[in-house]
Design goal:
With about 750 residues, the chain is of the alpha/beta class. It has five domains: about 100 residues, Arc Repressor Mutant, subunit A, CATH 1.10.10; about 190 residues, Orthogonal Bundle (Tex N-terminal region-like), CATH 1.10.3500; about 190 residues, YqgF/RNase H-like domain (Nucleotidyltransferase, domain 5, 2-Layer Sandwich), CATH 3.30.420.140; about 80 residues, DNA polymerase, domain 1; about 110 residues, Nucleic acid-binding proteins (OB fold (Dihydrolipoamide Acetyltransferase, E2P), Beta Barrel). It has 29 helices and 15 strands. The two termini are about 40 Å apart.
Length: about 750
C-alpha cells in the first residue's frame, strides 16, 4: 500500500505535493510555516489541506502498523492464507481490519473454547459438512451420540449438540462480511429510541424532548446524539437501537443455511439466533452507537473550531489606554487602568450601586482615573451588574471631553484566567477580581492576545464540549489557536509567554526564555537577536521569525510578514528602484513599476514573491476586520424588560447546530433557533451567522421562570426565505495567507512579465 498515493487521491492532490509536504514535516516544519513560506514546494497547499494530509497520513500509517502486527500474529498461528492476506492488505479502515482479525485474536475462555476442550470440534465440523452437502435425512441426534462422554462433561447428545452450536455460533459471529452487513443494516434501517423513567415526571428535566424520542440512526443530528449520551450518563435517559429482528434472522439464514435437511436447518436456525443475540447484537449496537458518537464529536468539534476562530479573530479596539471594569453589586466594581501595552497602571474598587453618596464618590474616582491616564476605552464586563454599571459609566462619561468609548465585553472564562498560573505569575499580589478587570481591559484592546491565556473550552463557544473526545478536542482547538495567532502575527516586544507559545516552532520553554531575555535586556531590536535566546536555534528561527514583528526595529522589514530569508529580494527590488528598503514601506506605490518575474529565483518562486509584494504594499497591516461593537437598548437591562415583538441589537455569542445564541444585554443569552435564522430554509447556522457578529433580532417569547428567551432574525410576517446579507456565512481564511486586495493585479503582472 502506497500511503502517499492514497492520500493524494483522497485529497485531490498531486503526488509531488504530498511528498514535498511530508518531507517538510519530517524536517520539523510546522503547518503555519509551510503554508505561508513554502508554497513553491507544496503547490500552494493551505493550512486546511496540510492538516488534513497530516491527519490522514497518520491514520493510514497507524493502520499499516496494525496490519503488520495482525499479519504476523496470524502467520505465527499457521493460519495465514493468500486469500486472507489479500483481504487484510486491502483494508482501508481500522474497523474492517479488526473484523478480519477477530477469528484469530487471542480470546478469554468462552463457551466455544470450553466445547472444544470437551472434544466437540469434530462434531461442529460434521454439522458444518452436513449443512453444505448433507443428505435430507441426516439425523443430528445420531451424529451427536458418539460424542457423549461423562468424564469430559458431555452427559448427553443434547449436551454435545449445544457445545457444537457454541463453536459454530462463535465462528458465525466472527465473520467480517456478516458483521459489516449487519452494522450497515443498523445504520440504515435501525432507529434510536429513548425513554425517560418514572423517576423523572414530565416537565422536571431538561431532556424532556427525549421522553418518547425516535429517529433513524442514519439521520440523527449530532447535537441530539450528544444530548442522548449526556442524559444517559446522568441517569435520566435510557436509549438503544430498535430494528427488524426478523430481517436480521432472514439475512443470516440466507447466508449461512445451505442444506435441505429439516433437522439440520432447524439446528442452524437456533445456532444463528444464538450467534446474533448472544455474541453480535450488543457489540454491533455498541459499535454503531460509538460510530455515531464519534461522528457527532467531530461535527461538534468543527462547530467549536469555527466559533473559536471567529472569537479569536474578533476585531481589536486597539492598543490604547483602557479601563477594565469587573462589575458587582455587593462587593463593588473592580476597576483597572492599563496603558497602551496592556501594562497595569492602577486599580481601585468603587461602589456605584449602593447609596447616592457612594455613587457620587465612585463617579469622582472614575472620572479621575480617566483624566489621569488619558483613557480612550472603557471595557465593562457583561456579567452580574454589567448593564447597571454600563449605565453608571455612561452618566460619568456624559460630563467628560473627550469621551472614551465604552464597550460591553464578554466575561466568559475571565474567572478561569484570574485563578490561572499565568495570572498568578503576573499579578501574585492582586485579588482574583482585579486580575479579572485587567483581563477585561486587555480583551477589548486585543482579544486574541488575551484569550490565548485561557483554556479554549472555558471561553463558552462550544457545543457539548465536555461530552466529546477530549484528546481530539484539545488537539483541534490548539490547532485553531495556532492558526489564528500566526495568521495575525505577534508583536515580539508586547507578547505574553502564552501568546508566544502558539507561534510556529516555539515551545512553551522557548516562549518563557524569549520573555526572560526581553525582561533582562530590554525590547528586541531585531529578529536576529532571537538567536541569542537560549534554545532558540536556527530551526526555530526559520519556523518562527516571519510571524514575529518588531515595530521600531533596526531593520525596517522586521515589522512585516516578510521572512528574513527573503530580505535579499526586497533589497534587490529597492536597489532597482534606487531607494532604501524602508522607503518602499513608506511609499509602496513605487512597487507598481517593478517587473515581478525578474525576481523569481530557485528558492523564491511566484507565490512567495506575490506574498512579499502584497505585504510591502500594506506592511504589518492587521488582517482582522475593523472594530465594531453592539449597542444595547438602554431601556432593556433585565428579563422583565423584554416584551414579545421588541426589536433589539445584539451580538452572537455562540453558534450551534440547532441555532445561535445572542447577547441582547439582559445577562441571559437568547436563542435564535435554526428555523428562525432566515426567511428561507437554513440547514447549517454557520452559513448565516458567526460568533461576534452584530445582529438585529426580534423577541418571540420570554420565559422568566426558566430564564429562556426565544428570538428571531426573520423578517416580520415573512414565512419564506430571507436572503443572507453580503458576506454572511463566509469563513475567515485558515491558511495564514495575508494577501492584499491587489493580489489579482500582482498575478496579472506576473503573467504579463513572462
Amino acid at each position: 500500500m502506497n500511503i502517499e498515493q492514497i492520500v493524494a487521491g483522497e485529497l485531490s492532490l498531486g503526488i509531488g505535493q504530498v511528498q514535498s509536504a511530508l518531507a517538510l514535516f519530517a524536517e520539523g516544519g510546522t503547518v503555519p510555516f509551510i503554508a505561508r513560506y513554502r508554497k513553491e514546494r507544496t503547490g500552494e497547499m493551505n493550512e486546511v489541506q496540510l492538516r488534513a494530509l497530516l491527519e490522514r497520513h497518520t491514520y493510514l500509517t497507524e493502520l499499516g502498523e496494525r496490519r503488520g502486527t495482525i499479519l504476523k500474529s496470524i502467520e505465527e498461528q499457521g493460519k495465514l492464507t493468500e486469500g486472507l492476506k489479500a483481504k487484510i492488505e486491502a483494508c482501508m479502515q481500522k474497523t474492517e481490519l479488526e473484523d478480519l482479525y477477530l477469528p484469530y485474536k487471542p480470546k478469554k475462555r468462552t463457551r466455544a473454547t470450553i466445547a472444544r476442550e470437551k472434544g466437540l470440534e469434530p462434531l461442529a465440523a460434521r454439522i458444518r459438512e452436513l449443512n453444505t452437502t448433507g443428505a435430507p435425512d441426516a439425523d443430528l441426534e445420531t451424529e451427536a451420540a458418539g460424542y457423549v462422554n461423562g468424564e469430559a462433561g458431555v452427559a448427553s447428545a443434547a449436551d454435545a449438540l449445544r457445545g457444537a452450536s457454541d463453536i459454530l455460533a462463535e465462528e458465525v459471529s466472527e465473520k467480517a462480511e456478516l458483521r459489516q452487513h449487519l452494522r450497515d443494516f443498523l445504520l440504515s434501517k435501525g432507529e434510536f429510541v429513548s425513554q425517560i423513567g418514572d423517576a423523572h415526571p414530565a416537565g422536571t428535566t431538561k431532556f424532556e424532548m427525549y421522553r418518547d424520542y425516535r429517529v433513524r440512526v442514519g439521520e440523527i443530528a449530532p447535537h441530539n446524539m450528544l444530548a442522548l449520551r449526556r442524559g444517559e450518563a446522568e441517569g435520566v435517559i435510557s436509549f438503544t437501537i430498535q430494528f427488524d429482528a426478523a430481517a436480521v434472522a432472514a439475512y443470516l439464514e440466507e447466508k449461512e443455511i445451505r442444506t435441505a435437511a429439516p433437522g439440520v436447518r432447524e439446528f442452524c436456525r437456533g445456532m444463528l439466533a444464538d450467534a446474533f443475540e448472544r455474541l453480535m447484537r450488543a457489540t454491533l449496537i455498541g459499535e454503531v452507537r460509538y460510530g455515531k458518537k464519534v461522528a457527532a464529536d467531530r461535527e461538534s468539534i468543527r462547530t467549536f473550531e469555527t466559533n473559536l476562530r471567529e472569537l479569536l479573530l474578533a476585531s481589536p479596539a486597539g492598543m490604547k489606554p483602557t479601563l477594565g471594569i469587573d462589575p458587582g453589586f455587593r462587593t463593588g466594581c473592580k476597576v483597572a487602568a492599563v496603558d497602551g501595552t496592556g501594562k497595569l497602571l492602577e486599580y481601585v474598587t468603587i461602589q456605584p450601586h449602593k447609596s447616592d453618596r457612594e455613587r457620587a464618590e465612585a463617579a469622582r474616582i472614575l472620572a479621575g482615573l480617566i483624566r489621569t491616564h488619558a483613557i480612550e476605552l472603557v471595557a465593562i464586563g457583561n456579567g452580574t451588574a454589567g448593564r447597571e454599571t454600563e449605565a453608571f459609566v455612561g452618566d460619568v462619561l456624559g460630563g467628560l471631553e473627550p469621551k472614551p468609548l465604552k464597550v460591553m465585553v464578554s466575561e466568559a472564562g475571565a474567572s478561569v484566567y484570574s485563578a490561572s498560573e499565568a495570572a498568578i505569575e503576573e499579578f501574585p499580589d492582586l485579588d482574583l477580581t482585579v486580575r479579572g478587570a485587567v483581563s477585561i481591559a486587555r480583551r477589548l484592546q486585543d482579544p486574541l492576545a488575551e484569550l490565548v491565556k485561557i483554556d479554549p473550552k472555558s471561553i463558552g463557544v462550544g457545543q457539548y464540549q465536555h461530552d466529546v473526545d477530549q484528546r481530539l478536542l484539545r488537539e483541534k482547538l490548539n490547532d485553531t489557536v495556532e492558526s489564528c495567532v500566526n495568521y495575525v502575527g505577534v508583536d515580539l516586544n508586547l507578547a505574553s509567554r502564552e501568546l508566544l507559545g502558539y507561534v510556529a516552532g516555539i515551545s512553551g520553554a522557548v516562549a518563557r526564555n524569549i520573555v526572560a531575555y526581553r525582561n533582562a535586556h530590554g525590547p528586541y531590536r531585531s529578529r536576529q537577536e532571537l538567536l541569542e535566546v537560549p534554545q532558540f536555534g536556527p530551526k526555530t528561527f526559520e519556523q518562527a521569525a516571519g510571524f514575529l514583528r518588531i515595530r521600531d526595529g533596526a531593520h525596517p522589514l522586521d515589522r512585516t510578514a516578510v521572512h528574513p530569508e527573503s530580505y535579499f529580494i526586497v533589497e534587490r527590488i529597492a536597489a532597482d528602484l534606487g531607494v532604501a528598503p524602508e522607503r518602499i514601506l513608506e511609499d509602496p506605490a513605487a512597487l507598481a513599476s517593478i517587473n515581478p518575474g525578474k525576481y523569481v529565483t530557485a528558492e523564491i518562486g511566484e507565490p512567495t514573491l506575490i506574498d512579499i509584494v502584497a505585504e510591502l504594499e500594506k506592511p504589518g497591516r492587521d488582517p482582522r476586520a475593523e472594530f465594531r461593537y453592539a449597542r444595547f437598548d438602554e431601556g432593556v437591562r433585565e428579563l422583565k424588560d423584554l416584551v414579545a415583538g421588541m426589536e433589539l441589537e445584539g451580538v452572537v455569542t455562540n453558534v450551534a447546530n440547532f441555532g445561535a445564541f445572542v447577547d441582547i444585554g439582559v445577562h441571559q443569552d437568547g436563542l435564535v433557533h435554526v428555523s428562525q435564522l432566515a426567511d428561507r430554509f437554513v440547514d447549517d447556522p454557520k452559513k448565516v451567522v458567526k460568533v461576534g457578529q452584530i445582529v438585529r433580532v426580534r423577541v418571540l417569547e420570554v420565559n422568566e421562570a426558566l430564564k429562556r428567551i426565544s428570538l428571531s432574525m426573520k423578517s416580520p410576517g415573512r414565512p419564506g426565505g430571507r436572503r443572507e446579507g453580503k458576506g454572511a456565512g463566509e469563513k475567515r481564511a485558515a491558511s495564514g495567507e495575508r494577501r492584499s486586495a491587489s493580489v489579482g493585479d500582482l498575478m496579472a503582472r506576473f503573467n504579463r512579465s513572462r
